[in-house]
Amino acid sequence: MPFYNSEEERRHGREQLLQRQKHLIELCYKVAQKYLFEGKHEESVPAALHSLRFRINVYGLNSVQLVPAYLLLAEASIGLGHVVQAEEYLSQAQWTVLKSSDCTDEIHSLLHRNLGLLYTAKENYKEARFHLANDIYFASCEFGSEHIRTSEAYFLLANVFFRQEKMDIADSLYTKVTDIWHAFLDQHIQRQLHARKKPLDILAKEMENDTGLDEPQEAEAVHILGTILEFREHTAKEKPEMTIKILKTVAMLHYLMMNLSKAHELAQKAYLLSKELHYKEEECAALQDLLDLIASKNPVTWKASKFFNNQSH
What we know:
The protein is an all-alpha fold and about 325 residues long.
């Protein structure tokens, strides 16, 4: 803090410092989250530690605001195989939550999620299922049962059942996650498809790509949907319609993230499979619309899409 000549300047300086610290809390938290979703656990630790340090400076040692940082550090420790360290962070988080009277459903959800991850790493699947079921409950209370923020809890629970080789349950939960993300991403796609019919001045603005997600959420979506796609591709013969749906969902995500070549590759794969299986006409048409939308942003895929259209007709 610099030297100030008056109390008013000192007060204004403290307020500015507080705002900077709050900004850094959020920035460090998002950077740590992004690294975690990308599987870069070691790189996430410094950002999570900085987030914790600034939280302590702003909120004090006993605030529930410290819990998200403890949970990030716990998740990073689990990813690094440091189970004892993870347990210490989670114990601190649990103790802070127990002492707090104003803990949100979101915080409870995150706490149970990390406890679920810990017990999954320890192969205590009974405890993992218990905590992940609680995660689903609290996330549903905070965001709704069909929200993308709740979908990660379904996904993690599906992974537990997958490890236990209870494929029917895992399959059902992976389907739930796919449905949630498909509905979320398709809203953005439909808005762009409708925008193409509007005057050029409105079109330019409405055709701007936007996932509606921040960077950590995009990394999370890529990880979750990529994992489900891999699962579906290994079981494609059993439920080909779900393979088509997850291919389309991942294609929509990559399109909105402007990974156009990847989006075109996945959408084309889904379209070919739907034609091969004589899939519902409206679904084939929706995939063709998606291919056209991708092609409209990329001259390379536009040529491929034009050729593709001629071949399909």
